[in-house]
Design brief:
319 residues, alpha/beta, Rossmann fold, Dihydrodipicolinate Reductase, domain 2, six-stranded parallel beta sheet, 10 helices, 13 strands, globular
Length: 319
């Protein structure tokens, strides 16, 4: 018997990509609200409760509403919104976050899909804090750029609609320093104070770079860039979807393309060191709609249902 999947909010950017990844799979049956019942408020509740697993691709308030509609305990949930990322009873859907975490995802009823920016930042920071190289109260500053699809329909319209020629080539936002991703960054990176987070959007559809810099003498034991890279490499050894670039490859690079991993579920980590050995720049590279959204959700779905983790996530050859 195949597992029944309902994507609540399948018409949105993330929902469409998840459906594309799941369509045609013989191990799943996709449920959809019939066209004639799309305005029927009971249809959504019926499918939520009929599904073995529901994926919520909704605004925060609507996601909470969907969870409230569940009856009994049979339907498992992956929430792609921000609503439950630091909520009690929810497992954070980043299987590679630490050794053994994939088992927590696999066994969970409720999984909160990570934010795209936070997943890159947490991937870089958590191993360093866990291994004692980065003090949890370190004043972390995170700079990042994303393709405009990360902003949903409104931002896509701004860059692709009738007034697209008026959209900026690049802009910063979150200037109030109250970005909704801060709570999950702080919690899952094991920090004891919020990082300073400066996100930005570029005139490209998808792709992402997340950057964190350090003065190495400020870290415990004054580690080298090679030491930081070694911790990351050990932490993610054997992982299919998180890779750590060789130090020599990173050092030889003169630029990084935020679009290089588009169409994949891969998260690639880089460590760059200054010639004087005093500074390091750590960068996470990913597709904000792949490992940063729909790919992450499908990976968690596979784990939760006991299916092959890579199903629907076959990687194309990255540029």
């Amino acid at each position: 018997m195949t597992a029944k999947i309902f994507i609540d909010g399948e018409a949105g950017t993330t929902g469409l990509q998840i459906r594309q990844r799941l369509t045609g799979r013989r191990d799943l049956t996709l449920l959809s609200i019939p066209e004639e019942r799309r305005k029927d408020p009971t249809a959504r509740a019926e499918l939520l409760n009929a599904a073995d697993l529901a994926i919520l691709c909704l605004p925060d308030a609507a996601a909470r509403e969907s969870v409230a509609l569940l009856e009994g305990e049979s339907t498992r949930v992956i929430d792609a919104s921000t609503a439950h990322r630091v909520a009690d009873g929810w497992v954070y859907g980043f299987p590679e976050m630490e050794p053994g975490h994939e088992a927590k995802v696999a066994g969970a009823r409720f999984v909160a899909n990570p934010g795209c920016y936070p997943q890159g930042a947490i991937a870089l920071l958590r191993p360093l804090v866990s291994k004692g190289l980065l003090p949890p109260d370190y004043p972390v500053a995170i700079h990042a750029v994303s393709g405009y699809t990360g902003g949903g329909k409104g931002l896509i319209e701004r860059f692709e609609g009738d007034a697209a020629d008026q959209a900026p080539a690049h802009y910063l936002y979150g200037l109030s320093l109250k970005h909704k991703h801060l709570p999950e960054m702080e919690r899952y990176a094991l920090l004891t104070r919020p990082p300073l987070f400066a996100p930005s959007v570029g005139r490209f559809a998808q792709g992402m770079l997340v950057q964190i810099g350090f003065h190495l003498t400020d870290l415990e034991g004054a580690p080298s860039a090679a030491d930081l890279r070694a911790v990351l490499a050990e932490w993610y050894a054997g992982r299919r979807y998180v890779e750590v670039a060789a130090l020599a490859d990173s050092q030889a690079a003169s630029e990084l393309d935020p679009e290089a991993l588009n169409g994949t579920n891969l998260l690639r980590l880089h460590v760059f060191g200054s010639e004087d050995g005093q500074r390091a720049l750590l960068i996470a590279q990913l597709d904000n709609l792949g490992k940063g959204a729909s790919g992450a959700a499908v990976q968690s779905l596979n784990l939760m249902l006991g299916l092959e983790e890579s199903a629907g996530l076959e990687l194309r050859q990255a540029a």
